């Protein structure tokens, strides 16, 4: 997923609003959105459309920074699991967090990596997409034709 408008997650929430089940915890979605925004897109480089968050800033602290950011990232995954996001989507979300943690832990280059790799924003988008389609991609029975 590419970076784009100032708050893609908020616009996605509006886009999926009618498709989300009524049982979805809207307060949890808002907490997830705020967490993703703070970590991935909380600040803008003046004169540009490039946004970054606290993830690359706390990543400057060796070991501790990326660990702290990963814990917040795992909160988004945990909330998604609690809301019933499919297992395959949760695995994709965990893979995003793992890439973010490993890539961000590389000295010096990791800070730049964290500024561009928006795993939290992507994970909220994945959760919204899965909730909107009801996890049908994983839950629908597969038919196999033996000819």
Automatic annotation (TrEMBL):
Annotated signal sequence range: none
Keyword Transmembrane belongs to the record: yes
Transcription as UniProt keyword: no
Pfam families: DUF4112 (PF13430)
Entry-linked InterPro entries: DUF4112
Keywords: Membrane, Transmembrane, Transmembrane helix
Chain ranges passing through the membrane: 57-78, 90-113
Top-level lineage group: Archaea
Protein name (Swiss-Prot/TrEMBL): DUF4112 domain-containing protein
Organism: Natrinema salifodinae
């Amino acid at each position: 997923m590419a970076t784009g408008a100032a708050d893609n997650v908020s616009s996605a929430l509006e886009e999926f609003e009618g498709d989300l089940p009524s049982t979805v915890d809207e307060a949890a979605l808002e907490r997830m959105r705020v967490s993703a925004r703070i970590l991935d897109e909380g600040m803008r480089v003046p004169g540009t459309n490039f946004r970054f968050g606290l993830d690359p800033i706390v990543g400057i602290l060796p070991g501790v920074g990326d660990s702290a950011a990963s814990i917040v990232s795992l909160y988004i995954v945990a909330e998604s699991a609690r809301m019933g996001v499919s297992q395959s989507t949760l695995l994709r979300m965990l893979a995003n967090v793992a890439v973010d943690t490993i890539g961000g832990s590389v000295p010096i280059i990791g800070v730049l990596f964290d500024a561009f790799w928006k795993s939290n924003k992507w994970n909220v988008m994945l959760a919204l997409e899965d909730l909107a389609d009801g996890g049908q991609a994983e839950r629908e029975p597969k038919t196999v034709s033996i000819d």
